[in-house]
Design goal:
Blueprint (H helix, E strand, L loop, with lengths): L1 H17 L10 H19 L1 H6 L14 H23 L9
Amino acid sequence: MPSRSAALLSIIVLSSCASGPPMAKQESADQRFEKLVKDYFEQALPMSPEFATQLGDHRFDSRLTDYSPEGEQRGRDLAQGSRTTARRESSEGAIWISPP
């Protein structure tokens, strides 16, 4: 009887090894969109702390928005980068924004 259990255990172990690693799940378009928006807000809220406070995020309460030319340029760069990412994702099949 012990040899039968050992044989069964060997078959189970070998069959689980033969199956290989589990396949990685591909992110859905919704998950990629959520990540894009989350990344955008994590970068944008520190640039606009008053807006963050209005949204209920109090991490930046001790700051004020930087309205200098450099601060405004950082905002434009972030918006442009996010738009480029959204367009790239849209061209790969996720329809998030209308074409230009």
